[in-house]
Write a structure and sequence with these properties.
By secondary structure, this protein is mainly alpha-helical. The chain is built from four helices and two strands. The protein has one domain. A hairpin with a 2-residue loop joins strand 1 and strand 2. Helix 2 runs antiparallel to helix 3, helix 2 runs parallel beside helix 4 and helix 3 runs antiparallel to helix 4.
């Protein structure tokens, strides 16, 4: 959004490309199965307290964190090099590959969930 406000309105065209990996990440999160409450009690004591809660949060936020991280690197390359065809094609390929990998993982998790 800041790039659009500074005169690079073409940057807004990249936002729909980012929707596909985010939707795939939400599908992965939806087919994870029952809550893994044992992650809350793994007992990782530190001087600052137990870290199990953070392990639990990271476990459930992992698909979204993977999407945000991969897309931020791809978007950074596009926004640095401008609206060149090569940079835009790379961004689209990263988004499609990330979507495919996440949906493949979601299908694996759904099959695993269905067996139980």
């Amino acid at each position: 959004m800041p790039f659009a406000l500074n005169g690079a309105a073409w940057a807004l065209l990249l936002m729909p490309v980012c929707a596909l990996p985010f939707a795939a990440a939400s599908v992965v999160a939806a087919v994870r199965g029952p809550v893994r409450s044992e992650l809350l009690f793994i007992g990782m004591p530190t001087p600052f307290g137990d870290l199990s809660f953070f392990v639990f949060l990271i476990w459930y936020a992992a698909p979204l964190l993977i999407s945000v991280t991969a897309l931020s690197f791809a978007l950074e390359a596009v926004l640095t090099h401008g609206a060149g065809v090569g940079a835009l094609a790379c961004m689209v390929l990263v988004a499609l590959a990330l979507t495919a990998v996440l949906l493949l993982g979601a299908s694996h998790l759904a099959k695993k969930l269905r067996r139980h």
